[in-house]
Write a structure and sequence with these properties.
Pathway: Amino-acid biosynthesis; L-methionine biosynthesis via salvage pathway; S-methyl-5-thio-alpha-D-ribose 1-phosphate from S-methyl-5'-thioadenosine (hydrolase route): step 1/2. Its EC number is 3.2.2.9. It comes from Anaerobium acetethylicum. GO terms for molecular function: adenosylhomocysteine nucleosidase activity; methylthioadenosine nucleosidase activity. With 232 residues, this protein is of the alpha/beta class. It has one domain: Nucleoside phosphorylase domain (Rossmann fold), CATH 3.40.50.1580. Strands 5-9-8-6-10 form a five-stranded mixed barrel, surrounded by five helices. Strand 8, helix 4 and strand 9 form a beta-alpha-beta unit. It is globular, with a radius of gyration of 17 Å. The mean pLDDT is 93.
Length: 232
């Protein structure tokens, strides 16, 4: 893993990572800005993909084609699907799938993309273990979980919908990009890991003020990535 592709969901998060980098160049492609340089002594490309599965997949493919990255790390926020996973906690992907894919009429399981021959896309075990250790060391004030991340082109806030995602997919959290990044990485045989800070609970309980959460999430995510890169 000589060159890392790091996809951040929040502009402020990307800004913090850029501050830690020795930036060599900025490449603009597909309305995205790719910052190439070194982070903790390792070659890295940092970029904000934008929202949704298409943006995320395009971003990942550019990282592979244009920058020849050896691994992809994706950070961002997600909604919890498990009551034990609290606001501010971190979920690290064991695997990812797209919950809004439905080809059951052709005999495929819900969530499976036809002719892909896999329901889910498994994260690299080395990256998963390194990310878990990095989070536990860098953010001892929160809990770290490893589990399935489910993605779709919809913002999920309804408790009943969340319960269905658990029933159908045993998901730990839900968001809008991770599984698309996972699929693009899978197709290119590039290791990946998805890291998500939890922004809301599965039980519709009251949440903290979002700007306060976002600031906290950025701090946790940047600490985690910095520690993770040092371990690889």
């Amino acid at each position: 893993m000589n060159r890392l592709g790091i996809i951040g969901a929040m502009e402020e998060e990307v800004e913090k990572l850029k501050e830690l980098m020795d930036v060599k160049e900025v490449v603009k492609k597909a309305s995205m800005e790719f910052y190439r340089g070194t982070l903790k002594g390792r070659e890295a490309v940092v970029v904000r993909s934008g929202i949704g599965k298409v943006n995320a997949a395009v971003c990942t493919q550019i990282l592979v084609d244009l920058f020849d990255v050896d691994a992809v790390i994706n950070t961002g926020i997600a909604g919890s699907l498990q009551n034990r996973i609290n606001i501010g906690d971190i979920v690290i992907s064991s695997d990812a799938l797209q919950h809004d894919v439905d080809a059951t009429g052709f005999g495929y399981p819900l969530g499976e993309i036809p002719r892909m021959e896999t329901l889910d896309f498994k994260a690299d075990p080395v990256l998963v273990e390194a990310a878990k250790a990095a989070c536990e060391e860098a953010n001892p004030d929160i809990s770290t979980f490893v589990g399935r991340i489910v993605s779709g082109d919809q913002f999920v806030s309804d408790k009943a919908v969340k319960e269905k995602l658990v029933e159908n997919f045993q998901g730990y959290c839900t968001e809008m990009e991770g599984a698309a990044i996972a699929q693009a990485a899978y197709l290119n045989n590039v290791p990946f890991v998805i890291i998500r800070a939890i922004s809301d609970k599965a039980d519709d309980s009251a949440t903290m003020d979002y700007p306060a959460f976002e600031k906290q999430a950025i701090i946790h995510s940047v600490r985690l990535v910095e520690n993770l890169v040092s371990r690889l």
